[in-house]
Each structure stands twice: as C-alpha cells, then as structure tokens.
Design brief:
The protein is α/β, with parallel strands linked by helices. The chain has 7 helices and 9 strands. Strand 7, helix 6 and strand 8 form a beta-alpha-beta unit.
Length: about 210
Amino acid sequence: MLELKNISKRFGDKQILSEFNLTIPEKKILVIVGPSGGGKTTLLRMLAGLESIDSGEIIYNGERLALDELGKRNLLGFVFQDFQLFPHLSVLENLILSPTKTMHQTREEAEKKASVLLERLGLAEHASAYPFSLSGGQKQRVALARAMMINPEIIGYDEPTSALDPELRLEVEKLILANRELGITQIVVTHDMQFAENIADVLLKVEPK
C-alpha cells in the first residue's frame, strides 16, 4: 500500500498541492477527477518520479521513503495523455527502450516480455509498425504496454480518453477494467465524470486552489 501524507508542491508562486493526503488501495482503480489546475496530473507525475515533491511523507508497505525514492523504485508506470511514443521507433522498439537502457535487461529478455504484452493487448501484428500508422486506440494500448514493461506496482493514466471517440473510450474502459482483474493497482486522472464512474473503485474529487 502506498500512502502520501501532507504532500506539498509549488510551481513558482503558485501552490499546486498543500498538505495533500492520499491512500492508494492495492489492486483497485483509484480515479481522480476535477477541472484543470487542481493538481491531478502533477500528482501523477510526482508518483512516477517525473516531478519533485517539496515536502510531506511517503509510506510504502509500512516503510517510510525519501521524497525522491518513488522514481528510483519504478513504482508507477506512466501512460501519458499524448502517449509520447517515439515516432522514429517501431512499436517493439518503443517498448524495449527503457528496460534495456535503464533496467539493464538484455534485448532478448525485453523482446520476450514485449511480445507477451503485445499479444495480450491485441497488438502482436503491429510490433514492427511505427506510431504514425496506428489508430488512437492502438497508440493508447502501446503506451500501456510500454508502461507495463518496467513491472510497476501501479499504472497511472493521465486523461486516457482525451480526444477519443465513444467507441475508443469504451475500449480504454475495458482495458483498465481487465487490468484490475489481473490484480494491477491503477490510478486514473480524468475530467470525464461518466468515464470515472464507469471504472472507479475509489473516486477522489480535487479542486483548484
């Protein structure tokens, strides 16, 4: 279990989060909803180690962690709103880049895991394709597979249905719910209340300061 206590974060003169508390339930879907400016994406980026935490306390399975420890432990795999796939790399190469460069896996090990994930997500035939040739839903699944390559304890999604049509939104819903059945802890940041209600085990509403 991951607990955040009295977390604070500032950008310049603006207080983004102030004494924020959050408990992330294991093997459940936590959905954080609210308008832009409420700190939802910032929180997700802090959990992934992409933003620093100014102050507060982090407790993971009863152990107190240093504020910069989350990124080092790869606890959270991040699915970016705009996917952030490397356009010059194939789907397979996008997946194996981080494990081979930062986790020192062999290419063979990384490719084996990537193949399993692509098969599970219905993308096996697109392994050699490049991002420009994929649909929005396919890019979403590739981004998810890439996040899962580091074996994270938690998967975080930043506005996963943004700019998707209703059919693709339903596809994303099914994907997230399927991951819950696999026992994966997930955090979803969204402003789409209907989507949130469809998938949430725990719903947290945040408001801008």
